[in-house]
Amino acid sequence: MRFLSEQRLDDGIVEREFTLGEIPGTLWTPASASASAPVPLILMSHNNGLPKAQPRLVARARHTAACGYAVVTIDAAGCGDRPRSAEAERTRAELGRAMRAGEPVDEIFEALIGPLVENAVPEWLTTLDAALELPEVDDGPVGYTSWTALGIRLAAVEPRIKAAGFFAGGYVPRAQREEARQLTVPLLMLLQWDDEGNPRRRALELFDTFGSKEKTLHANLGGHTGTPWFEAEDGNRFFGRHLK
Amino acid sequence: MRFLSEQRLDDGIVEREFTLGEIPGTLWTPASASASAPVPLILMSHNNGLPKAQPRLVARARHTAACGYAVVTIDAAGCGDRPRSAEAERTRAELGRAMRAGEPVDEIFEALIGPLVENAVPEWLTTLDAALELPEVDDGPVGYTSWTALGIRLAAVEPRIKAAGFFAGGYVPRAQREEARQLTVPLLMLLQWDDEGNPRRRALELFDTFGSKEKTLHANLGGHTGTPWFEAEDGNRFFGRHLK
After folding, report:
1. Which UniProt keywords apply (chains A, B) (predicted)?
2. Which of A71, B58, B65, B208 is the most exposed place for a label (fewest CB within 10 A)?
3. B174 Cβ under 8 Å from any chain A Cβ
């Protein structure tokens, strides 16, 4: 993990940009975190390839770090500002066209998100390994939050992940819908009741599918970006129960 | 409100039994509550006529009071240890028989719960009035929690109720399913995903029906009595946002 910049923010958070091979990432830690007082790690992803600098992700990462966590995010292969394959570009264009035309989008989502997850997983695991080597990061239980499809795969293959928060979950590739049955870690799934891009019925079916014995669903009225502020606090308490 | 007994409990809570005309009730307040430091009121009901001394209700009432609330419960007409009409007894017996036989129970529930709600409402409003007169109870916003059908009616008719928590909600009389559309107060609905007596689909439909702009659903794996302990804390934070 090669740090490119370090900035101390008003809220007592240290924000560091880094690269890890080809992977660009950002790490937020409380300024008080140290080798003698390390903090647990939370992997905070973004759905469908949005950039790691997206303001809602950054705001939530800082809020989470302020509650005593090291929060790491990356632009995985094909995500954020990373180059996209010509095929992915074509699929995204086709998705936009189909959505505007009101046509079924399942197969297009599958063709877009399936490979995105496959390619993102090894880079997130590399990031997890590197972050746990930092002295200010506790090498105990790790949390995961946000992009549902990626999180299902990560939680299925990486036993150091001990708690996972999932958002939305209306469209999840077939492979991850199957893997959801194998999960055993405590889960908090967050659903916006009127999410225009995530059919409610499918999200509820996915929640039903998860194999975990401790799973909690929080649903709130409103669209995709309307999650109320108190859910960020609820999320931090969820991680507090399982990582601290 | 005529107090019959007063007991100071280990957790710093004062528990008082009272009568209000024919109505027997219990009030829990923090020992620190006083005229100069009054605490908000929460009405804590019990579904389908269970007694106010039921241990799960008592535990939750004490936990809530310890977070800085006056919590009041009553055995309303036909509930708990109050006399039941011969008709109600017959309907309960018929309900048990139909459930064991796997027959449809909607109309029997309607015949049992409809009148129970109708008769309970005026007694709960009388209790609310009396509790707010106590100097240690804040006469500002009031909360309501637990029995869904009763709470819908109370929140629809009583503007002093500013936040409501509902539990289960699989069977709600027709009148309250209609009244649910009129509600405007913030709501927290708590659902057990595998509640044997409360069909999930109906509870989700009811959540969809509520007119409130701020409404949150919490669902957890497990049966009717399996609600995890952290939901009591979440409930108290919900009331904290709206009553304090």
Report:
1. Hydrolase
2. B208
3. no
Is the separation of the CB atoms in B79 and B182 below 8 Å?
Answer: no
pLDDT recorded at residue A59: 94
**Band (A50; pLDDT cuts 50, 70, 90):** confident
Average model confidence (pLDDT) for chain B? 95
Question: Is B110 contained in some domain?
Answer: no
If we measure between CA atoms, which residue out of B147, B177, B173 comes closest to residue B50? B147
Closest-CA distance of chain B to residue A141, Å: 20
Q: Pick the residue of B217, B220, B237 with the most A CBs within 10 A to test the interface with A by mutation.
A: B217
Helix/strand/coil for A239:
helix
Does residue B199 sit within a domain? yes
Q: Is residue B109 part of a domain?
A: no
Cβ <8 Å between A218 and B216: yes
B186 domain-assigned: yes
Residue pair A104/A98 in contact (Cβ under 8 Å)? The answer is: yes
Residue A183: give the domain boundaries.
Answer: 2-243
Does any CB of chain B come closer than 8 Å to the CB of residue A193? Answer: yes
Distance from CA of A201 to the nearest CA of B (A): 11
Give me the sign of the Cα torsion angle B91, B94, B100, B101. negative
Q: How would you classify the pairing of strands A70-74 and A41-44?
A: parallel
Structural domains in chain B (count):
1
ipTM of the complex: 0.91
Residue A68 neighbours by CB distance under 10 Å = 18
**Cross-chain CB nearest to B241 (options A208, A219, A230):** A230
User: Is A20 exposed, middle or buried, given 0-12, 13-18 or 19+ CB atoms closer than 10 A?
Assistant: middle
Report the distance separating Cα B84 and Cα B51, nearest Å: 13
Determine the Cα angle at A236 with ends A230 and A237, to 5°. 90
Q: What is the pLDDT of residues A5-41, one digit of tens each?
A: 999 999 999 999 999 999 999 999 999 999 999 999 9
DSSP character at residue A52: T
The minimal CB distance from A216 to the residues B212, B220, B233 is found for B220
- Distance separating alpha carbons of residues A27 and A38, to the nearest angstrom: 14
The tens digit of pLDDT for each residue in A137-167 reads 999 999 999 999 999 999 999 999 999 999 9
> CB contact, 8 Å: A223 with chain B?
no
Tokens, residue B69: 């609330």
pLDDT > 80? residue A49: no
Rounded CA separation A182/A176 (Å)? 10
Banded pLDDT at B121 (limits 50, 70, 90): very high
Q: Residue with structure tokens 């946002």?
A: B241
